[in-house]
Amino acid sequence: MLATCSNILQIWDSQNYSVVKEFGHDHVPSTDIIKSIDWKKDNSNYLVFTYKQTGRVQLYDLQKNKSVELSTTKAQCCSFSTSGKYLSITDEDCHAQIWDVNSGRIAQTFNSVDQTPMECVCWGNGDSYVAAGTR
Protein backbone atom coordinates (compact mmCIF):
# COMPACT_ATOMS: atom_id res chain seq x y z
CA MET A 1 0.00 0.00 0.00
CA LEU A 2 1.00 3.58 -0.60
CA ALA A 3 -0.27 6.70 1.15
CA THR A 4 -0.30 10.21 -0.32
CA CYS A 5 -1.48 13.38 1.32
CA SER A 6 -2.18 17.10 1.21
CA ASN A 7 -5.45 18.15 2.79
CA ILE A 8 -6.82 14.77 1.69
CA LEU A 9 -5.03 11.58 2.70
CA GLN A 10 -5.31 8.75 0.18
CA ILE A 11 -4.29 5.13 0.64
CA TRP A 12 -3.53 3.31 -2.59
CA ASP A 13 -3.30 -0.39 -3.44
CA SER A 14 0.14 -0.65 -5.03
CA GLN A 15 -0.82 -3.78 -7.03
CA ASN A 16 -3.71 -2.33 -9.04
CA TYR A 17 -3.09 1.41 -8.43
CA SER A 18 -6.53 2.13 -7.02
CA VAL A 19 -7.51 4.25 -4.03
CA VAL A 20 -8.73 1.95 -1.23
CA LYS A 21 -9.33 4.62 1.40
CA GLU A 22 -9.58 8.38 1.40
CA PHE A 23 -9.83 10.80 4.29
CA GLY A 24 -11.22 14.20 3.62
CA HIS A 25 -12.09 16.98 5.97
CA ASP A 26 -13.52 14.57 8.56
CA HIS A 27 -9.96 13.74 9.60
CA VAL A 28 -8.03 16.73 8.26
CA PRO A 29 -9.25 20.22 9.20
CA SER A 30 -9.90 22.35 6.12
CA THR A 31 -7.36 24.92 7.33
CA ASP A 32 -4.56 22.36 7.61
CA ILE A 33 -2.63 19.93 5.44
CA ILE A 34 -0.74 16.78 6.28
CA LYS A 35 3.00 17.38 6.29
CA SER A 36 4.54 14.03 7.21
CA ILE A 37 3.30 10.44 7.07
CA ASP A 38 4.76 7.01 7.83
CA TRP A 39 3.54 3.41 7.96
CA LYS A 40 4.29 1.16 10.91
CA LYS A 41 6.72 -1.33 9.40
CA ASP A 42 5.52 -4.52 11.14
CA ASN A 43 2.75 -5.29 8.61
CA SER A 44 0.11 -3.83 10.90
CA ASN A 45 -2.50 -1.37 9.72
CA TYR A 46 -1.15 1.70 11.52
CA LEU A 47 0.07 4.92 10.04
CA VAL A 48 1.08 8.16 11.68
CA PHE A 49 0.86 11.67 10.28
CA THR A 50 1.55 15.25 11.28
CA TYR A 51 -0.32 18.44 10.39
CA LYS A 52 1.62 21.37 8.94
CA GLN A 53 -0.24 24.28 10.58
CA THR A 54 -1.13 22.87 14.00
CA GLY A 55 1.70 20.35 14.31
CA ARG A 56 -0.63 17.75 15.80
CA VAL A 57 0.35 14.08 15.52
CA GLN A 58 -2.30 11.44 14.77
CA LEU A 59 -1.93 7.65 14.90
CA TYR A 60 -4.48 6.02 12.61
CA ASP A 61 -5.71 2.40 12.73
CA LEU A 62 -6.77 1.48 9.21
CA GLN A 63 -8.75 -1.62 10.27
CA LYS A 64 -10.76 0.13 12.98
CA ASN A 65 -11.00 3.42 11.03
CA LYS A 66 -10.02 5.35 14.17
CA SER A 67 -7.32 7.83 14.97
CA VAL A 68 -5.79 8.97 18.22
CA GLU A 69 -3.90 12.21 18.86
CA LEU A 70 -0.44 11.40 20.22
CA SER A 71 1.08 14.80 20.69
CA THR A 72 0.08 18.43 20.60
CA THR A 73 3.63 19.72 20.18
CA LYS A 74 4.34 21.61 16.94
CA ALA A 75 5.52 18.44 15.18
CA GLN A 76 7.48 18.58 11.95
CA CYS A 77 8.10 14.96 11.02
CA CYS A 78 7.38 11.45 12.25
CA SER A 79 8.89 8.03 11.61
CA PHE A 80 8.33 4.52 12.96
CA SER A 81 11.39 2.47 13.85
CA THR A 82 12.10 -0.65 11.80
CA SER A 83 10.52 -2.93 14.41
CA GLY A 84 7.55 -0.62 14.91
CA LYS A 85 8.27 -0.53 18.64
CA TYR A 86 9.25 3.16 18.61
CA LEU A 87 8.01 6.32 16.96
CA SER A 88 10.20 9.38 16.53
CA ILE A 89 8.68 12.85 16.31
CA THR A 90 10.61 16.07 15.64
CA ASP A 91 9.21 19.49 16.49
CA GLU A 92 9.63 23.24 16.08
CA ASP A 93 10.74 23.50 19.72
CA CYS A 94 14.11 21.96 18.77
CA HIS A 95 13.38 18.46 20.11
CA ALA A 96 13.30 14.92 18.82
CA GLN A 97 11.12 12.63 20.91
CA ILE A 98 11.24 8.85 20.91
CA TRP A 99 7.88 7.34 21.86
CA ASP A 100 7.36 3.78 23.05
CA VAL A 101 4.41 2.75 20.88
CA ASN A 102 3.14 0.05 23.27
CA SER A 103 3.02 2.26 26.36
CA GLY A 104 2.17 5.48 24.50
CA ARG A 105 4.83 7.34 26.49
CA ILE A 106 7.93 9.31 25.63
CA ALA A 107 10.99 7.10 26.17
CA GLN A 108 13.61 9.76 25.38
CA THR A 109 13.86 13.41 24.32
CA PHE A 110 16.85 14.87 22.49
CA ASN A 111 17.57 18.58 22.08
CA SER A 112 18.82 20.22 18.90
CA VAL A 113 22.52 21.02 19.22
CA ASP A 114 22.18 24.37 17.43
CA GLN A 115 18.75 25.21 18.92
CA THR A 116 16.96 25.22 15.56
CA PRO A 117 13.77 23.31 14.78
CA MET A 118 14.21 19.70 13.71
CA GLU A 119 12.53 19.12 10.36
CA CYS A 120 13.23 15.51 9.43
CA VAL A 121 13.86 12.18 11.13
CA CYS A 122 14.66 8.59 10.14
CA TRP A 123 15.82 5.33 11.70
CA GLY A 124 18.90 3.31 10.76
CA ASN A 125 20.45 -0.06 11.57
CA GLY A 126 17.19 -1.52 12.83
CA ASP A 127 16.24 0.36 15.98
CA SER A 128 19.85 1.22 16.87
CA TYR A 129 20.09 4.74 15.46
CA VAL A 130 17.78 7.66 14.87
CA ALA A 131 18.87 10.70 12.87
CA ALA A 132 17.19 14.10 12.98
CA GLY A 133 17.99 17.09 10.79
CA THR A 134 17.62 20.80 11.52
CA ARG A 135 16.97 23.73 9.18
Automatic annotation (TrEMBL):
GO terms for molecular function: gamma-tubulin binding; translation initiation factor activity. InterPro entries: NEDD1_Spindle_Assembly, TIF_beta_prop-like, WD40/YVTN_repeat-like_dom_sf, WD40_repeat_dom_sf. GO terms for cellular component: centriole; centrosome; ciliary basal body; cytoplasm; spindle pole. Residues 30-131 form the Translation initiation factor beta propellor-like domain. GO terms for biological process: microtubule nucleation; mitotic cell cycle. It holds the Pfam family eIF2A. Transmembrane segments: none annotated. Keywords: Initiation factor, Protein biosynthesis, WD repeat. PANTHER family: PROTEIN NEDD1. This is Translation initiation factor beta propellor-like domain-containing protein.
